[in-house]
Amino acid sequence: MSHILITAAGSHGDIAPYTGVGARLRAAGHEVALATHDSYAPLVRAAGLEFRRLPADPRTRRADPADAADAAGPAQPPAPGGTRALMRQAAAFIKELGGGLADAARDDTDLLLLSATTAPLGHHLAEARGIPSLELPLVPAAPTGDFAPVVSGGRSLGRWGNRAAGRLSLRVIDRLYADAAREMRARLGLPPATPRTVRRRAEAAGRPVLYGFSEVLVPRPTDWRTGLDVVGNWWPWHAPDDRLPPVVEDFLAAGPPPVFIGFGSMAGGEGERLSALAAAALRRAKVRGILQAGWAGLTTRHSSADADLLTIGEVPHALLFPRMSAVVHHCGAGTAAAGVRAGVPTVPVPVTADQPFWAARLAALGVATAPIPFKDLSTDHAVTRLAHAISQATAAPARREHATAAAHRLATEDGAGEVLKAVERLLA
């Protein structure tokens, strides 16, 4: 029996996919722990995994919803136009994370599985313990000429420009992790080495990296080195007998399929404004709607007399999305993939970081309307624009046909199974 430690940090979408990976490894006979923030302990334990704590929980430490620790993701550079303050916030998050990561790995750990956020620190830990590690990022990070870095908004800079921007992106990440890596190596008794040096060693050694997204959305770049593999999505774990709450089932049974609206861990503190906007757009589009509260705190309490609106908390997208006529969301990697998996059209409202990249991918695939940047929901014409996009998503048969075809392709993939194969090769 092997002891495997998965480490992941960030918001819900950065953590949940690894519960599915961990459950698959556990079913194959491995002992699996998932180290993450306290907010996600119930999620981890429900999947049958051991929970180990990581500090710097963005749900409790973050006062500003645009904090780089959540919005851009500590393992990605701030979006273009990011300030020194964002860089400092991200570096502080990472520094706090480093000490907890070292504590999470116990003496019996045989293998480290690392998210994009934890990998630049986890490699030092693996070196000190003399154990293998495997990177499992959720977004494409290695430089390529095929597209610009995902945090650049999805605009191509040409093949040369894309690769140059990708290399610059890696150098920004190296800088963000420099202080934390220096402290971690000293604590672990390792000789000094910069994050850039450690990264280049891994690249030179051809260390494998498995990317947890589908080639349905992002074909594997033609210029990536051997060992960088796109294996398909890792879906959040949920119990086989899970059902939607009765109040949701009752709402679904009371009329035609509604439209889902949610912004996940984005837009904290803007719930009242966004709720009123969503309700008005749904009414204008003449469709029913389900609002997922999320960190924004969406609610229908201001429309309590409207029987065509319902507010919900956390429910598995795998159960809810197939019952929708369309989904409106911020286009985080996991939510974007969940909409495709459900075979329903999407209205993308990207906020920051990699979200414009995924929004553009959905539109190019023909499963989504043209993206509406989140900042545009503050304009005078926001209700009209959102209502029009919802009408486009729900009324166009071609868009639903594209979504159904994409869902069929996703159903043939087994991302977690590919991780299991790679793990067993490493442990052998």
UniProtKB/TrEMBL annotation:
<protein>
    <submittedName>
        <fullName>UDP-glucose--sterol glucosyltransferase</fullName>
    </submittedName>
</protein>
<dbReference type="Pfam" id="PF06722">
    <property type="entry name" value="EryCIII-like_C"/>
</dbReference>
<dbReference type="InterPro" id="IPR004276">
    <property type="entry name" value="GlycoTrans_28_N"/>
</dbReference>
<dbReference type="GO" id="GO:0008194">
    <property type="term" value="F:UDP-glycosyltransferase activity"/>
</dbReference>
<feature type="domain" description="Erythromycin biosynthesis protein CIII-like C-terminal">
    <location>
        <begin position="311"/>
        <end position="425"/>
    </location>
</feature>
<feature type="region of interest" description="Disordered">
    <location>
        <begin position="56"/>
        <end position="82"/>
    </location>
</feature>
<dbReference type="GO" id="GO:0016758">
    <property type="term" value="F:hexosyltransferase activity"/>
</dbReference>
<feature type="compositionally biased region" description="Basic and acidic residues">
    <location>
        <begin position="56"/>
        <end position="65"/>
    </location>
</feature>
<feature type="domain" description="Glycosyltransferase family 28 N-terminal">
    <location>
        <begin position="4"/>
        <end position="62"/>
    </location>
</feature>
<dbReference type="InterPro" id="IPR050426">
    <property type="entry name" value="Glycosyltransferase_28"/>
</dbReference>
<dbReference type="InterPro" id="IPR002213">
    <property type="entry name" value="UDP_glucos_trans"/>
</dbReference>
<keyword id="KW-0808">Transferase</keyword>
<dbReference type="InterPro" id="IPR010610">
    <property type="entry name" value="EryCIII-like_C"/>
</dbReference>
<dbReference type="Pfam" id="PF03033">
    <property type="entry name" value="Glyco_transf_28"/>
</dbReference>
<dbReference type="GO" id="GO:0033072">
    <property type="term" value="P:vancomycin biosynthetic process"/>
</dbReference>
<dbReference type="GO" id="GO:0005975">
    <property type="term" value="P:carbohydrate metabolic process"/>
</dbReference>
